[in-house]
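FORM 7B: Structural annotation worksheet

SECTION A. Query
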Amino acid sequence: MVLLRHGRTAWNVAGRVQGTSDIPLDSVGREQARVAATELVAMNPTRIISSDLSRAHDTAKALGDLSGVAVETDARFREIHFGAREGLTWREAWDRFPVGMRAWFDGDESQIPDSETHEAAGARFAE
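SECTION B. Predicted structure
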């Protein structure tokens, strides 16, 4: 099994938390996906499964196109949902949610509105 992270997005460059927000690859991310695909195709993949978010799917599709293997999508493979932090930079998150961010750093991930815990995300992914 090989896990491949998606290519770069504009939010990666800006330092924004993406989570389950569907942010597309930028031009560098598309090139990263192409390069990764040219290296991974030698592994002769027989199955490719991706999150349904476009940045992940488009990264996987680059490998699928080269290998001839259709990309399956599964929402359970999505990144953790960061709730109200999505779209914010670290500084913005600390400014907006100082108590919640302190709790998050101390291991209590339930203090940011609508956020998913790593434990819940791991259980979702493991399904």
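SECTION C. Observations
The chain has a mean pLDDT of 96. The longest helix spans residues 27-40.

SECTION D. Sign-off
Analyst initials: ____
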